[in-house]
Amino acid sequence: MKFHFKTSYEQDIRIFEDRAKAGWYGLLALLAAAAPYLLDEYMLGELTLMLIWALAGLGLMLLAGHTGQPSLGHAAFLACGAYMEVWLAERGVPFPISFPLAGLFAGVVGALIAVPALKMSGIYLAIATLAVGIITEDVIILLEDFTGGIGGVYAPSITLLGTDIDRYADGGRPFYWLCLAALIAVNLIYLNILRSPTGRAFVAIRDSEVSARAMGVNVARYKTLAFGLSCFFTGLAGALLAHFLGAFNYEAFLVLISVQMLLMVTIGGLGSIHGAYLGAIVVVFLPQAIVRLREQVAELMGAGNASIPGLDTGVFALVLIAFILIEPTGLYGRWLKIRTFFELFPLYRKDMFKRHKSFLKTERMK
């Protein structure tokens, strides 16, 4: 087992604990960059979608995982980023400018909504954000001049350094690398936020609002900031999703997408950046695995291509529910338990990760 003896504050806030861990992440980044040469066009498209969902998951993870504010309406901010990106692109704004502006638009909208919404907490905040998600569907239809209404809009190709980039250009490789670069950049921003006083204030609010306020943290301001940053990251994911889909309308941002996003970060592991990636892998690739397994079972039984409508979605939902019941700490929590078991064997104790949650009297009914 490796121990890190820290002798300075700079060591405590380093992005990587040691050079070995930095090397492993560097190797993973190189492998991700080489993926277009190792996968066929279909699998590369699925991997690209996974990167976009991971980016959206980082946005929700900042709010739900590190600030403790649940949201059931984050699909609304995906829509803000997507429609603003298309609106700017149609008016000739270059992608290096339209992309951050789309995220900024979503972040500003999120911060404005947060001012009244974050006066609530717990289940009441979840219901308020759910209402935002439901209202957004009607707003998209009503703002037909901006969103195309029910017919939707078409996302133009990205022009970058004189090259047209879209999902299908050159087998999808340039667009994949663009999504990968955006995800790495956001990941670095996320890490630096967490190791700053702002990030520590977020975690303090998550653990106990009363205690954070007693320590001098401006809870209302940091909640609003967390919501704005979360929506900013989610808006960036929405901008990339617009170009990935090519054509879309309000049905791409239904409330079920918000629920799926919350399930994604919960299954991956709340409170960890790794959880956003693991959850995105499950959300994107598990339905594909279920479909292929169903087809193989149908062939073995001689049923041809016959299927029960909604079966794939039902199985997917049951798998997610079962996983949450069996392993509430998520995939990353399970990995930590397995790693700790081998590091501490034979001294590992079964209840080492059992959480005994306690409340202040003023927080019991929140």
Automatic annotation (TrEMBL):
<keyword id="KW-1133">Transmembrane helix</keyword>
<feature type="transmembrane region" description="Helical">
    <location>
        <begin position="21"/>
        <end position="39"/>
    </location>
</feature>
<dbReference type="GO" id="GO:0015658">
    <property type="term" value="F:branched-chain amino acid transmembrane transporter activity"/>
</dbReference>
<feature type="transmembrane region" description="Helical">
    <location>
        <begin position="122"/>
        <end position="143"/>
    </location>
</feature>
<keyword id="KW-1003">Cell membrane</keyword>
<feature type="transmembrane region" description="Helical">
    <location>
        <begin position="314"/>
        <end position="333"/>
    </location>
</feature>
<keyword id="KW-0472">Membrane</keyword>
<feature type="transmembrane region" description="Helical">
    <location>
        <begin position="175"/>
        <end position="193"/>
    </location>
</feature>
<feature type="transmembrane region" description="Helical">
    <location>
        <begin position="225"/>
        <end position="246"/>
    </location>
</feature>
<feature type="transmembrane region" description="Helical">
    <location>
        <begin position="45"/>
        <end position="64"/>
    </location>
</feature>
<protein>
    <submittedName>
        <fullName>Branched-chain amino acid transport system permease protein</fullName>
    </submittedName>
</protein>
<feature type="transmembrane region" description="Helical">
    <location>
        <begin position="95"/>
        <end position="115"/>
    </location>
</feature>
<dbReference type="InterPro" id="IPR001851">
    <property type="entry name" value="ABC_transp_permease"/>
</dbReference>
<dbReference type="InterPro" id="IPR043428">
    <property type="entry name" value="LivM-like"/>
</dbReference>
<feature type="transmembrane region" description="Helical">
    <location>
        <begin position="71"/>
        <end position="89"/>
    </location>
</feature>
<dbReference type="Pfam" id="PF02653">
    <property type="entry name" value="BPD_transp_2"/>
</dbReference>
<dbReference type="GO" id="GO:0005886">
    <property type="term" value="C:plasma membrane"/>
</dbReference>
<keyword id="KW-0812">Transmembrane</keyword>
